[in-house]
Amino acid sequence: MIEVNEVYKKYVGNNFYSVNGIEFQAESGSILGLLGHNGAGKSTTMKMLATLYFPDKGSILINGMSTGASKYKIRKILGVVYEEPRLYDQLTGEENILFHTSLWGLNKKNVLSRLKDLYKELEVDFEKQYVKNYSKGMKQKFSLIRALITDPQLLLLDEPTTGLDIVSRNQIRNYIKRLKASGITIIMTSHIAEDIEALCDRIVILSKGTIIENSTVNNLKSKYSSESFEEAYVKVQKKIGDYGGITE
């Protein structure tokens, strides 16, 4: 599904590489966790996967398509959820979705039918309320709905459960598991160790633009003689002299 091949990306205006020759793959229907301290290169990598940035060197292929040459085709199979929900406060949740899908030229009747299913899946009963009155958990659910309304094959999740209460976090985590079971490929960043351990098939840990580890959760725990992923991650950071602030 995803092939990242010796990718380099410089910071704008200088010669420092924020991403420095990284390589990894993600299989269809899997969840890959992209981790690292602030400034490690996660955000730049996610923006390149989303076709907002393009590699200075190397290539990123999604379903065999280059992000540079085929960005518009890739965007049709892509959904993105940002850490900070980007919704219009003066519209209701449903109006936000209808506005978004109108820009894509989607049929309103089909969208409303799809919305009913998503409301049920995510336990949403506040779609007619104005977004300005939403909690962060409510906003995050609608950000996820907006990303899924086009039935994407690839979903990029940037800190999808950060700042949520326990109930909302569990709901979204369980729904992510169901998305994986449906065959959607997911790339996610998170600072919550419990979510990573519960969700990710594979972990890529970045530091200063390079990949430090590319492995499974269980293999990392074994390699670093750790009972939990959080413990293993802290040992990785200590080994390289960085602490990424991952939390339970």
UniProtKB/TrEMBL annotation:
UniProt xrefs under SUPFAM superfamilies: P-loop containing nucleoside triphosphate hydrolases
Stretches assigned to the ABC transporter domain: 2-233
Keyword Metal-binding carried by entry: no
Keywords: ATP-binding, Nucleotide-binding, Transport
Superkingdom of source: Bacteria
Keyword hit for Secreted: no
GO molecular-function term, one example from the UniProt record: ATP hydrolysis activity
Annotated family: Belongs to the ABC transporter superfamily.
Protein name as catalogued: Sodium ABC transporter ATP-binding protein
Species of provenance: Anaerocolumna chitinilytica
Organism classification: Bacteria, Bacillati, Bacillota, Clostridia, Lachnospirales
Primary gene name: natA
